[in-house]
Amino acid sequence: SQTIHQWPATLVQPVGSPLSLECTVEGTSNPNLYWYRQAAGRGLQLLFYSVGIGQISSEVPQNLSASRPQDRQFILSSKKLLLSDSGFYLCAWSGIGTGDSPLHFGNGTRLTVT
Amino acid sequence: AQSVSQHNHHVILSEAASLELGCNYSYGGTVNLFWYVQYPGQHLQLLLKYFSGDPLVKGIKGFEAEFIKSKFSFNLRKPSVQWSDTAEYFCAVKVGYQKVTFGTGTKLQVIP
């Protein structure tokens, strides 16, 4: 069966420090991968999605970037964190080729920028 | 770009009451529609989905949703809610096979 791992679960970082959140998927090949940020009252904001290695679509221009160095690995990064980057970050995957393939979410990372 | 609107931000119902949560999307082309649920302290999980065919789809736990193309709507319904349905509900639209956009969510509180 497929599983998705996301770490760390919680992270406290000072303003101006770098960020690296990692997400890996097991049990499937060539998934679509997604990074969302969830905020109370704002739902899930799509940050990035990827349909293949090295292919990243950015939805919201901001202080973050994403990379997909391997088929089942998706990384969310920042060179210098801002206070406004605090939030709950979710990684998700879906199967390719069928529009009705749902998203499967990781446990999320609670990021606090101080 | 597509967008999703959920007009009910917080709904409070008594057990056995009927539920309808609104979802409207804006996109002129073919879409796939989903409802996800997040129970307190848990992951987001799929409740039901519409891909094609019968516009009335049934999901888990007695939920159903109706796709009305002319109204760009995909409202979620349940005839009789239970306390265990207390959760946050998210409508989502998938364009093509890739991009998935979520609404802002509706918090449902069911009072025993």
Describe the structure.
The complex is a heterodimer of chains A (114) and B (112). Chain A is mainly beta. Chain A has one domain: Immunoglobulin-like (Sandwich). Chain A has no helices and eleven strands. Chain A is globular, with a radius of gyration of 14 Å. The mean pLDDT of chain A is 92. Chain B has a single domain (3-111), classed as Immunoglobulin-like (Sandwich), CATH 2.60.40.10. Chain B is globular, with a radius of gyration of 13 Å. The N and C termini of chain B lie far apart (41 Å). Chain B has strands at residues 3-5, 10-14, 19-21, 24-26, 31-38, 44-50, 56-58, 64-68, 73-78, 87-95, 99-102, 106-111.
Q: Mean pLDDT of chain B, rounded to whole units?
A: 93
By secondary-structure content and strand pairing, the structural class of chain B works out as: mainly beta
Based on DSSP secondary structure assignment, what is the total number of beta strands of chain A?
11
Helix content of chain B: under 10%
CATH class of chain A: Mainly Beta
Uncertain ranges of chain B: none
Strand content of chain A: over 45%
Number of domains of chain B: 1
Biggest chain pair contact, residues each? Answer: A-B, 26 and 26 residues
Under CATH, the homologous superfamily of chain A reads Immunoglobulins
| Helical percentage of chain A | under 10%
What is the CATH H-level superfamily of chain B?
A: Immunoglobulins
Cα distance spanning the termini of chain B? 41 Å
What structural class is derived from the secondary structure elements of chain A? mainly beta
Distance between the termini of chain A: 38 Å
Please summarize the sheet with the most strands of chain B. 6 strands, mixed
CATH architecture of chain B: Sandwich
Name of the CATH architecture of chain A: Sandwich
